[in-house]
Specification:
single chain, alpha+beta, Alpha-Beta Plaits, 4 strands, 34% helix, globular
């Protein structure tokens, strides 16, 4: 399993509209081949910064399958207008879990 971690900075005044857009877009991820989970968190210290975490079966499920799909285009159509800057995306692989 791979975790896609995206840091999203939202325009001032757009937080609620962005959160609504993410809720509307969630089914796009639920239907995406290889998508295992979808989560959005807001920073307490920096309220206009969000972290999107999507679990994928493989990196390619995200970078090839989803990114080249109509679902990705719809995702960006819904949430893109709220971005203050381009998302910062990385992929993580689990190596250790504590308690």
């Amino acid at each position: 399993m791979i975790q896609e971690i995206a840091t999203l900075t939202i325009k001032p005044g757009a937080a609620l509209a962005f959160e609504d857009a993410v809720a509307e877009a969630a089914p796009l991820f639920q239907k995406a081949p290889g998508a295992l989970s979808f989560r959005l968190d807001r920073s307490i210290e920096t309220p206009l910064e969000y972290t999107l975490t999507v679990a994928w079966s493989t990196v390619e499920d995200h970078t090839v399958g989803f990114r080249n799909s109509e679902a990705f285009a719809k995702w960006r159509e819904l949430v893109g207008p709220h971005f203050a800057e381009a998302p910062q995306v990385k992929h993580l692989e689990h190596v250790y879990l504590g308690f």
